[in-house]
Amino acid sequence: MTTPKIGKLIIFSAPSGSGKSTIVGHLLQKNFNLEFSVSATSRAPRGAEVNGRDYYFLSADEFRAKIENQEFLEWEEVYADTYYGTLRSEVDRITQQGKNIVFDVDVVGGANIKKMYGNRALALFIQPPSIDELEQRLKNRGTDSPDKIAMRLAKASEELTWAPRFDVVLVNDDLDKAKQEAEKILTNFLSQS
């Protein structure tokens, strides 16, 4: 009897506006047997985001209760009362089916997941070409106020210092090129036993 194949973990982290969600979305449409890990958050939905598809939207109190119950693989209070985390049940559900799970998480969460899963996980850091370019992308996105953009840029400067903790740093200065490079990196990682 053969042992069922357990899926691998692919972690994408980056400052907000670096293009990681776009790259992850691209990879999910390719033949990598990937399923997206839906993170939990205590922030309000943005735009057309849907509960259970984009995030599991929880109140700050609900999130803290799940922390107390140790239901998270990793979690972070990114801003006051704004939590993000990965539910253990989500990772187990996907990998036990033999699927590879892909994460779109903050840098602290990404580094923590990598540390827990070691060689079973690949951690990619998507880096913007510059802070100026990042600011322009955030403005063009049109989802945040100028104050929120300033807060995201301050956070991005700190997040960029985490890049060396990741297996691969992918500079997204050309989105099509970054998507192709991400495909090559995944093909190589998933071909390893």
Protein described:
Helix content is 41%, strand content 22%. The protein is of the alpha/beta class. The protein has one domain: 3-Layer(aba) Sandwich (Rossmann fold). The chain has a five-stranded parallel β-sheet, sandwiched between helices. It has a four-stranded mixed β-sheet with strand order 4-3-6-5, with helices on both faces. The chain is globular and about 55 Å long.
Helices, strands, pairings?
Blueprint: E1 9-13, H1 20-28, E2 34-36, E3 40-41, E4 56-57, H2 60-68, E5 72-79, E6 82-87, H3 88-95, E7 100-104, H4 107-117, E8 121-127, H5 131-141, H6 146-159, E9 168-171, H7 175-191
Parallel strand pairs: 1-7, 1-8, 2-7, 3-4, 8-9
Antiparallel strand pairs: 3-6, 5-6
Helix pairs in contact: 5-6
Overall CATH class: Alpha Beta
Structural class: alpha/beta
Question: What is the CA-CA span between the terminal residues?
Answer: 19 Å
Number of strands: 9
CATH architecture: 3-Layer(aba) Sandwich
Q: What does the average pLDDT come to? A: 91
What is the string of helix and strand elements? EHEEEHEEHEHEHHEH
Q: Which residues sit in consecutive blocks of at least 5 with pLDDT less than 50?
A: none
Largest sheet: 5 strands, parallel
Strand content: 15-25%
